[in-house]
């Protein structure tokens, strides 16, 4: 403040010289309050004189009045507005719904059911419903039309326009809905670690995402109205989701869950396991969900973990999805191999799980072989070779190789059962390498139930066939008489859709199928972008067999399948190649099994050879390492190298270095305890003239004299 005074003083001085009137007016006042020197305007030194000095300017006086009066008016306006809002607010109930919360979707679905919504004239159209970050109100009939036609799989849906306020009536109360879209500002985890940034919106990614929030205001003072609205919205939503389950994955920052899709629930019947396995899993999970108070009474954390391990393609993932559907829970997929996932973000992810859900960690062993270790991630790479542990079954743990993940095993264990771990969650972990898992991860409390999934048994093969070629009721009665086949493939083509198909005999049907296949092959090849491909085309039609016929074929099929040799996925793949030809599927499976067997033998042989080569290499490396170690330790403990004496005890000039001396060493200086001679090339020894040819240097070995 003090620094402004000289400037003001200067300004005043110049003002005084420029305007005599002002000076004349000012001087008496200034004279009255301060000491003035002649010919020089003196600036007021105290506040009251300064104000008086300013007030002496008429323009300043007017400005001052304006400021005071304007300020007074603005303050009154603000006070009145705030009073108005306060009074208005007291008649309203307001609620907000963040997009990241499930209730946001409830309100959107509820909104779609309101008659007034269908009359709205300002809306945003989106085709991202059910996926991405933008759930929207799917139009009536869109669901069905998207299922019926192949051409467009994107459903059109409406969203309330951003920043527009919609008004409608709910239970004779006037209410408004506004959707506000905001750009979340970048706050990087590096600068604002979660500890210091409790607000979930603070670390959403480098550049920030668009966040939607719905604001609802209801003209009522009755809170029950809002509760009723929420319950109704949830009911609408649940009713729509009865046959679906939602899938969530972590977002790019790895600390929040994003809704990615809603999938139709898969029927438990479609999974074929050995008798009893499905029941064990399902009953256990149901029992767990019913036992919250039981856990609370005993102080046991209300969590359950299942470890599904075994052969690839044996149905582990499918089983988890079926169970989630059966239990009516949403699925949260935790990808441990996702780049950048570290202990802190995994912990945040697990803490952000809802109370009842199914969390999946697929291929949990992959996380280990890619570097999850108990050690600090930065150090573990160096200790890979030594990092071998034994599991309860006595098997050796695969040592972590490289450290690409920032996740440590202790971080994973803490996330699973740390203080913040969500209550009521069911965790499923899958692995193909059970023995590679750390015992700490598999212990009860983390993985309570371990279930092995094996390759297909004959029973599974038969059941798979039965489920693959579903019998048609119309053929049930007819099959006993003449086994007529009607058309039903489940994959009907465009040309036949909507028309009632004829019922040709088996031969006719076969011919037709082949013809169809040929025609579609030709059409496909004649198209410009034809390229040879591997795979199974969806075309053709299946004969309509009754239950008995299918069962016969299934038996024939399963008889040929060797016990526990083929995976269920490979059997399903085989049947897909014969999806419209069950008879051929049953007849030709023998050839397929032989082929698979031969391929497996070749693969095993190759793997064996690869393994043998790797083993040989490892053995060589080990031997080399051992030799090096021995040489090093011998060099460390051995005395100075001794040389074998020359037979004549006269060492001539070396042929290579040109000079040498022979010293008799005392016996104690020899490692072998024997007298040795040592060559010291630096010392010069007179050359014996009698020796005509110089000898080469002696080799540095200690020898017995
Ligand atoms: N027991 C089974 N019953 C019915 N279908 C099965 C079964 N096992 C596998 N399949 C089919 O095989 C395919 C692959 O199955 P899935 O992904 O569940 O196997 P997985 O054990 O999880 O394999 P991976 O270990 O390689 O992840 C799915 O399409 C599924 O329908």
Describe this structure in words.
By secondary structure, the protein is of the alpha/beta class. It folds into six domains: 4-88, no CATH class; 92-240, no CATH class; 257-450, 3-Layer(aba) Sandwich (Rossmann fold); 458-526 and 533-587, no CATH class; 594-637; 639-705, no CATH class. Helices cover 41% and strands 13% of the residues. It has 22 helices and 18 strands. It has helices at residues 4-18, 20-33, 47-55, 58-89, 102-112, 142-148, 223-240, 277-290, 292-298, 316-327, 343-351, 364-369, 377-380, 409-417, 439-442, 458-468, 473-481, 506-526, 547-560, 568-577, 582-587, 589-637, and strands at 93-98, 123-126, 137-138, 157-160, 165-170, 173-183, 210-218, 244-250, 257-264, 304-310, 331-334, 357-361, 425-431, 449-453, 486-487, 543-544, 662-664, 677-679. The protein has a seven-stranded mixed β-sheet with strand order 9-8-11-12-13-10-14. Helix 8 (277-290) packs across helix 10 (316-327) and helix 16 (458-468) runs parallel beside helix 20 (568-577). The N and C termini lie far apart (101 Å). Bound molecules: adenosine-5'-triphosphate. Adenosine-5'-triphosphate is lined by residues 271-273, 312-318, 430, 432, 453, 464, 568-569, 572.
């Amino acid at each position: 403040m003090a620094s402004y005074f000289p400037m003001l003083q200067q300004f005043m001085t110049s003002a005084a010289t420029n305007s005599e009137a002002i000076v004349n007016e000012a001087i008496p006042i200034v004279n009255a309050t301060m000491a003035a020197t002649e010919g020089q305007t003196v600036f007021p030194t105290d506040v009251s004189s300064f104000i008086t000095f300013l007030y002496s300017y008429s323009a300043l006086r007017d400005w001052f009045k304006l400021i005071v009066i304007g300020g007074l008016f603005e303050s009154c306006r603000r006070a009145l507005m705030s009073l108005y809002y306060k009074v208005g607010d007291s008649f309203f109930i307001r609620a907000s719904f963040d997009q990241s919360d499930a209730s946001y979707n409830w309100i959107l679905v509820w909104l779609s059911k309101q008659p007034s919504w269908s009359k709205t004239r300002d809306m945003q159209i989106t085709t991202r419903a059910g996926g991405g970050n933008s759930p929207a109100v799917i139009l009536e009939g869109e669901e069905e039309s998207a299922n019926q036609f192949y051409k467009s799989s994107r459903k059109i849906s409406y969203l309330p326009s951003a920043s527009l306020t919609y008004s409608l009536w709910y239970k004779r109360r006037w209410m408004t809905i506004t959707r506000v879209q905001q750009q979340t500002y970048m706050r990087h985890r590096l600068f604002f670690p979660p500890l210091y940034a409790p607000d979930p919106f603070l670390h959403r990614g480098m550049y920030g995402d668009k966040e939607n929030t719905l604001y609802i205001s209801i003209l009522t003072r009755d809170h029950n109205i809002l509760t009723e609205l929420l319950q109704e919205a949830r009911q609408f939503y649940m009713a729509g989701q009865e046959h679906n389950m939602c899938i969530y994955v972590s977002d790019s920052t790895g600390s929040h869950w994003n809704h990615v899709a809603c999938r139709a629930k898969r029927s438990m019947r479609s999974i074929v396991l050995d008798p009893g396995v499905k029941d064990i899993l399902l009953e256990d999970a149901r029992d767990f969900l019913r036992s919250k108070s039981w856990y609370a009474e005993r102080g046991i954390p209300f969590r359950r973990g299942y470890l599904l391990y075994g052969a690839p393609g044996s149905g582990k993932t499918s089983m988890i999805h079926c169970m989630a559907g059966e239990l009516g829970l949403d699925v949260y997929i935790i990808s441990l191999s996702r780049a950048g996932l570290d202990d802190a973000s995994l912990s945040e992810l697990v803490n952000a799980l809802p109370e009842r859900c199914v969390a999946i960690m697929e291929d949990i062993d992959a996380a280990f072989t890619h570097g999850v270790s108990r050690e600090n991630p930065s150090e573990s790479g160096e200790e890979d070779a030594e990092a071998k542990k034994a599991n309860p079954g006595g098997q050796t743990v695969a040592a972590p190789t490289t450290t690409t993940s920032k996740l440590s095993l202790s971080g994973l264990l803490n996330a699973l059962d740390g203080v913040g771990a969500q209550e009521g969650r069911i965790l499923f972990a899958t692995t193909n390498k059970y023995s590679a898992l750390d015992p700490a991860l598999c212990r009860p409390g983390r993985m309570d139930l371990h279930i092995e999934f094996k390759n297909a048994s004959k029973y599974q093969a038969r059941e798979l066939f039965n489920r693959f070629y579903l019998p048609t009721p119309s053929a049930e009665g007819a099959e006993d008489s003449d086994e007529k086949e009607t058309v039903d493939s489940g994959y009907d083509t465009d040309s036949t859709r909507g028309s009632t198909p004829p019922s040709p005999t088996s031969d006719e049907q076969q011919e037709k199928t082949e013809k169809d296949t040929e025609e579609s092959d030709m059409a496909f090849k004649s198209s410009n972008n034809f390229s040879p491909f591997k795979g199974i085309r969806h075309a053709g039609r299946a004969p309509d067999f009754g239950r008995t016929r299918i069962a016969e074929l299934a038996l024939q099929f399963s008889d040929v399948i060797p016990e526990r040799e083929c995976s269920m996925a490979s059997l399903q793949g085989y049947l897909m190649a014969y999806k419209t030809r069950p008879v051929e599927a049953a007849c030709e499976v023998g050839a397929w099994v032989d082929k698979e067997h031969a391929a497996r033998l070749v693969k095993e042989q190759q793997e064996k050879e690869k393994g043998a080569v790797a083993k040989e290499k490892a053995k060589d490396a080990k031997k080399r390492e051992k030799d090096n170690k021995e040489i090093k330790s011998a060099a460390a403990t051995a005395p100075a190298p001794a040389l074998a004496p020359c037979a004549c005890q006269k060492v001539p000039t070396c042929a290579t270095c040109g000079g040498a001396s022979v010293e008799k060493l005392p016996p104690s200086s020899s490692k072998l305890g024997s007298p040795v001679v040592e060559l010291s090339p630096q010392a010069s020894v007179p050359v014996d003239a009698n020796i005509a040819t110089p000898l080469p240097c002696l080799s540095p070995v200690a020898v017995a004299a």
